[in-house]
Amino acid sequence: MRPLIVDALAYGRGKRQATRDVIGAGPRSIAGVLESTGIEPRVAPVEEALGIAFNHSAYDLLMVSGMTSDLRTVRKMVTRWRKESEGPTLIGGPVASDVEVLRRVDADIAVTGEGEATMLELLSLGLNEGIIPGEDALSSVKGIIYRTDAGTQVNPLRPRMSRIEYDALTPSTRTISSYPLFRAARVYVEALRGCSNYHRAQGVLPEETCEACNLCRSGGLETRYDCPHGVPPGCGYCSVPSLFGPPKSRSVEKMQE
């Protein structure tokens, strides 16, 4: 199998207006998972993958990572892929948190939250051969949204990885060279995942509705995760606390590898 991972992070409508010299960590984390199974993926920035000269028929699986603001570019990427390849399409990153994302971009599967363990499970179910697993198999995979004959199925989120599980992962370094001017780029190294801000955005609930349980302000982060009214933790615009949980860091030994 020859997978193509497209980095659409911060491309908005198709072109980065800022941080053009930044190489993010997310796509390389998934590339590392594939490499651990003997698969060598290609990582390409979306500007290159949407170029006229790019040959999509050389690949049999598309994975696109984007933020919610990148929805239009993600859709362009999937549309281009559909014209040149019959392979499956997966969407990841913050944009995959939208339950309507498959309908909006015409993808097959969206991976929500931490994607490494989910990707390994999907590969074991047949995706390693470029085949979308059947509905029966997909129904047990946590952390995905997928198409069914009846519409779209949203599975429960996968439990957040422990620090030990997270530390065992090795992001790809080989795929850095796929980015233009990579020798001069700012390459993000993910030393920590998650967020410690478990406050709730003020004004989400009327004062008479809030039970003043104080979970927004005190106690351990795991305890503060669940609000009696379902208001997610963290800043009102950010999905990091909900999807990735309290912060967890890589060990010093892992960072030295």
Would you kindly provide a written description of the structure presented here, covering whatever features stand out?
The chain is of the alpha/beta class. The protein has 10 helices and 11 strands. The strands form 3 sheets. It has a 7-stranded mixed β-sheet, with helices on both faces. It has a two-stranded parallel ribbon with strand order 2-9. The radius of gyration is 19 Å and the shape is globular.
- Alpha-carbon distance between the two ends: 28 Å
Q: What is the class of the domain at 3-176 in the CATH system? A: Alpha Beta
CATH architecture of the domain at 3-176: 3-Layer(aba) Sandwich
Q: H/E element string?
A: EEHEHEHEHEHHEEHEEHHEH
Mean pLDDT: 90
Q: Flag low-confidence runs.
A: none
- SS strand fraction: 5-15%
Largest sheet: 7 strands, mixed
Biggest sheet, spatial arrangement of strands: 3-1-4-5-6-7-8
Number of strands: 11
As an assembly, this protein is: single chain
CA-based gyration radius: 19 Å
Binned, the helix content reads 25-40%
Please state the structural category: alpha/beta
Annotated CATH topology of the domain at 3-176: Rossmann fold
Number of helices: 10
- The outline comes out as globular
